[in-house]
Amino acid sequence: MNILTPILVIYFAVVFPTIHLVFPGNRFIYEYWPTLYFSLALTIAILSKQVSAQQLGLKDFRKSVTIGLLLGTLPAISVPLLDSLLVSTGLSQSELFTGADMRSPDEMGFNRSLTSKLFPVIIVPFINQLFLTGLVIKNLLKTQNTGQAIISSGLLFCLFQFDFSLGNLFLGMVATGLLRLSGSVLAPVLIHAGFAIAEYLIVFHYPRLISALVFIV
User: Fold this and answer.
1) Residue 25, domain member (yes or no)
2) What is the reported pTM?
3) In this structure, is residue 14 part of a structural domain?
4) What's the pLDDT score for residue 98?
5) Range with the lowest mean pLDDT among 43-47, 71-75, 88-92, 131-135?
6) Distance between CA 52 and CA 185 in Å, rounded?
7) What is the pLDDT of residue 64?
8) Which domain holds residue 150?
9) Helix 166-182 vs helix 61-89: angle between axes, to the nearest 10 degrees?
10) Does 22 reside within a domain?
11) Residues in Cβ contact with 182 at an 8 Å cutoff, skipping those fewer than 6 apart
């Protein structure tokens, strides 16, 4: 795909350093600039007819949505279950978790505004998966077998978001596995949203779990 190379070059060589030099004090842009760039790149690619919505993986709605909903609910429902497990086993009273439930989202740097809650749960999963999984990873790894593609995509997912956490690595691998399984990017979008909802629940309702999951997220 001819347009993919300039998109990636501009992303890493131009936009990345520019954001850090020009907008270090704008928290929204600093945090979500990759998603904003991804949306612009997707718009240009579609309007210039370099790629179609179907080529990005927006197809097979029924199958992919079913798979995505089933798997996407797992991270969200796991949060209260894990917290209940800590309480029932008495681990919540251990030194590791003492006072952890008193953490304030504001003190941890999280914004309570509606936009800051909805954007990472709805917009980010859709745009990021459409761009990273549906456009970049799908094209860069199309000649690899499924096993190789899953491993490579986890690393690429971390690289493009400049965040080499186990959570991003796992999410990237799962997204590509679901893309290969369902043939659609909608399943990865929904499971990404499920992880985002789980993060929201942990930060705003189950802060003690941050101590348990700090090495993952």
Assistant:
1) no
2) 0.90
3) no
4) 67
5) 88-92
6) 13
7) 92
8) 53-213
9) 150
10) no
11) 60, 63, 64, 67, 68
Structure tokens at 24: 């270090």
Is position 148 within any domain? yes
CB 216 within 8 A of CB 198: no
Q: What does the alpha-carbon distance between residue 146 and residue 149 come to, in Å, rounded to a whole number?
A: 5
Residue 115 burial by Cβ neighbours in a 10 Å radius (0-12, 13-18, 19+): exposed
How far, in whole angstroms, is CA 73 from its chain's centroid? 15
* Residue keyed to tokens 């549906």: 134
Owner of token pair 């999951």 = 213
Helix ranges, 11-113 (H): 16-22, 27-47, 61-89
Contact 9, 136 (CB under 8 A): no
Task: For residues 206-210, give the mean pLDDT.
Answer: 84
d(CA 125, CA 129): 6
CB 110 within 8 A of CB 116: yes
Other C-beta atoms lying within 10 Å of the C-beta of residue 149? 22
Kindly report, residue by residue over 161-192, the tens digit of the pLDDT. 999 988 999 999 999 999 998 889 999 999 99
- Domains identified in the chain, total number: 1
Contact (Cβ atoms closer than 8 angstroms) between residue 60 and residue 183: yes
The continuous run of DSSP H or E covering 17 comes out as: helix 16-22
Beta strands in the chain (DSSP E): none
